[in-house]
Design brief:
Blueprint: H1 2-29, E1 38-46, E2 57-60, E3 66-68, E4 74-79, E5 86-91, E6 98-102, E7 106-113
Parallel strand pairs: 1-7
Antiparallel strand pairs: 1-4, 2-3, 2-5, 5-6
């Protein structure tokens, strides 16, 4: 009796796992179920010299993440979801803050900061 109960439990478990896998795999094939990332990229430059500004902080209004530019001033932000337009706020010590709105995807932005 005990052996039959164990076998029945194993068969039931396997059936549940197979049913779950059948339910999951169609969602992997359906591209609408997997959100595509939205890219916002470009460079932050000094308005007077057009030189890249490294370590500038970029925030997006309504979001908690912060992004930091590379030493060259380049940045790339990959977002899972993005409303249109996005409002970017850029700060760097010694420069006036800058705000701009962009419609993603945007991959060639040039964001200018002015010296204080």
């Amino acid at each position: 009796m005990r052996k039959a109960t164990i076998i029945a439990a194993i068969i039931t478990s396997v059936a549940l796992i197979v049913a779950a896998l059948i339910g999951i795999f169609p969602s992997f094939r359906d591209h609408k179920m997997i959100p595509e990332s939205v890219v916002v990229a470009g460079i932050v430059v000094n308005q007077d010299t057009n030189q890249g500004i490294g370590q500038a902080i970029i925030t997006i209004a309504g979001r908690t993440e912060q992004y930091v530019t590379e030493d060259s001033g380049n940045f790339r932000i990959d977002l899972r979801t993005a409303s249109k337009p996005l409002r970017l706020h850029v700060t760097k010590s010694g420069f006036k803050p800058a705000d701009t709105s962009v419609n993603p995807p945007a991959e060639s932005l040039v964001l200018q900061l002015q010296k204080q």
